[in-house]
Request: fold
Amino acid sequence: MMEAIKAPRGTRDILADESWKWAHVLKICREVARDFGYNEVLLPIFEHTELFSRGIGDTTDVVEKEMYTFIDRGDRSITLRPELTASMVRSYLEHDMIHQPQPVKLWGHGPMFRYERPQKGRYRQFQQVDFETLGAANPLADVETIDTSMEIYRRLGISNLQVLINSVGCPECRPVFRSALQNFIGDRLGDFCETCQSRFERNPLRVLDCKKPGCKELTESAPVVLDSLCGDCRSHFDMVTSGLSRIGADFRTDNRLVRGLDYYTKTAYEILAGELGSQNAVCGGGRYDNLAEAIGGPHVPGVGFASGIERIVLTMEGQGAYPGEKPGTCVYVVAASPEAGLEAASLVHEIRSKGISADTDYMNRALKAQMKRASSIGAEIVCIIGSEEMESGTVGFKDMTSGVQEPIPRSEVMARLTAWKEARR
Ligand code: AMP
Reply:
């Protein structure tokens, strides 16, 4: 026999026991987006490679090692998007949103692709929700961004999150910090891990991000970015922290937080969940005032965040924050004899057309097996039609919660079901 084909490494099938939780997450995101004034956009899954190499930065792990890039049949270099921010800014520029009242607040969601080493909470295809505010340089827009993400988790019933915040400076002050850090690392380069050594020249800030205990210890006394900020970045950071305190947000400054994407300026933040293990970031975001210019547009300040849906769901499961019960079928129509099949099909059609979820049997099961099936799918009402009911123009109406069954005229079934549905609203 031929070997069965499996899904590619790093991808997952989201099956029925989980997909309803995803629908709930997106429902909450949609509600938060409405309440915070973000409009949804649906953007392409692939883009020109240049968008990411110029936007995210050539020396980042994402661009250097993780992109799914290919040449299409028209000889263009195309990349499956590894994140959404660059596409959001491209779309903003391409559709002249700069001429709309600012800021323009957009949100979107969908699959992202990164060739990473798969493990719990880290996949090669994963889904993000992404919220961006374009056109506002005001630090209070950063506060709103962080508040938006926290509101999503709050409404999902997730708690015990750690909000970490830092500033990564701007093109004016970052080079000063970068060279101070390089001097510090250079003096002990041999003691760092191989990855840190390779980042030393091209992307030294990422050395601060290394999770290896040896490197962490070495950078404990490293220069701190907050000490090198220029006046503008310092007052921006102070306003963000004041704003967060003012809305009662629980956050902590983490001067090692640098994030993996080059476009960040000033604010960078992450939200961590203990339930996630080593891949513990449920959300990452910050400000990117130079991204629009990097991809060929004018200066457009921006701030936003992305949160991975797999990690949101893992956190919800870890905390037992379930959005109620998995939605099931309300009504099951049982055809208790072969002649009743057509009548059952017609009743199920009618029930569904009134917006009540209903199902029936197509497997010619015996009456007992159909009743078992009804209870296993969680049906609350069962309508039974057999030869006796066909003759008398009735339907056996069984309330599965109370166990009470009574015959009612066929003509009254819909009214009973509609009243029952109203009562349980
Ligand atoms: P980033 O775009 O790297 O700032 O990541 C933002 C968020 O997306 C992270 O906090 C995670 O929740 C999620 N995420 C990033 N990479 C992955 C991945 N490979 N698998 C699953 N989730 C991811």
Observations:
- Residues 134 and 302 are 4 Å apart (CA to CA).
- Residues 331-424 form a domain with the Rossmann fold fold (CATH 3.40.50.800).
- The radius of gyration is 28 Å.
- The longest strand covers residues 104-113.
